[in-house]
Amino acid sequence: MNARVRLEKQQNRSGDPQRADQGFGRIAEEPPPHFAGTDLDGIYAFFARNGYVVIAGCLSSGELAHLNGFYDRTQRERPDAWGLGPRKPHHRHQGLIFSQPLLDYPELDPYTRHPGSYPAVCRLLGGEDRARFSEFNFRETPKNAGIGSQNFHHDATRPDRFTRVPYMPVDWLCAVHYLTDVEPGTPAFCVVPMSNRFETLRDAYESLGDAYREAPLFAPAGTCILYDTATWHCRYDGDGRRPRRTWHQYYARGGWLPSSLPHTDRYVRPPTPCLTDWNLFPERLALHTDPAVRLFFSHWNTAQCEWVASGFSDAVRRSMPRGYM
Ligand SMILES: [Fe+2]
Questions:
Q1: What dotted CATH number matches 3-271?
Q2: Phi, psi at residue 90, to the nearest 5°?
Q3: Residue 83 above 90 pLDDT?
Q4: Are strands 52-55 and 34-35 parallel, antiparallel or unpaired?
Q5: Ligand 1 center to residue 153 CA distance, Å?
Q6: Is residue 13's pLDDT more than 50?
Q7: Looking at the whole model, is its pTM more than 0.85?
Q8: For residue 231, how far is its CA from the centre of ligand 1 (angstroms)?
Q9: Domain residue ranges of the chain, discontinuous segments joined by +
Q10: Residues 283 and 312: beta-carbon distance below 8 Å
Q11: What's the CA-to-centroid distance between 99 and ligand 1, angstroms?
């Protein structure tokens, strides 16, 4: 669906509050700036204002070849893990997802703190020792997948985001890396800039006024988009002819933040809670010999605690959602 048709479709809907989450069709006229991964001040300033940022050229051609080869190999060897086998996929209508590939593939470990985006991740989460791992998955929107529009939504949020001062650092960050080119007609990651402190998309639309825009992010393979999980976003419709592959990694903020008020030692923000109750970290990362790596993989949910207590038992892993082997 092209932008004009989408605009008309959405304008028809915009008077209906029941349909507001599907967008208002006010598409950004200009693409946002694409920052170099080394421009940490520029990245921080843009992100702090808009709730997302685009970083150019994060992945090399060799890494893109490796990761696309990983998709081809694992879709052939482990179709169930991608939702391609007889087992029902855990994410219906959202294309293919390989959830938790880190469990069995140490070849992916270097990507978890990738030099193209990790310095920016640390800066946005409050410092080098503040970034924590949450989740890592691969997704594919195949050609002619027949998947429907994805509603605008936000991911996990914390209630204090409406009142805390300062707002930064964020609670969770998600990094979406494009592994294939995303051009008009390709399903694009789409954000509503400055929408991370609104309860509903309609609130954002009415409060932002003329500044409200829906911004589909077109960019070549290797680009990384970092967004605050509270920012409203969706997968913007493609024309069905162009497939898309994306690597998604979520990060949380670690450590306690002290109050900025004078004459107090009161701590005001605890480490961000776990993003999910099912995501597991493999033994080689959770119990790594390097304390910095252990700290990065230290946000264990209760499923992880039980798996660790079992000695990382295969049977316990298999009993958990998405623990397939
Ligand atoms: Fe999302």
A1: 2.60.120.620
A2: -75, -20
A3: no
A4: parallel
A5: 6
A6: no
A7: yes
A8: 9
A9: 3-271, 276-325
A10: yes
A11: 15
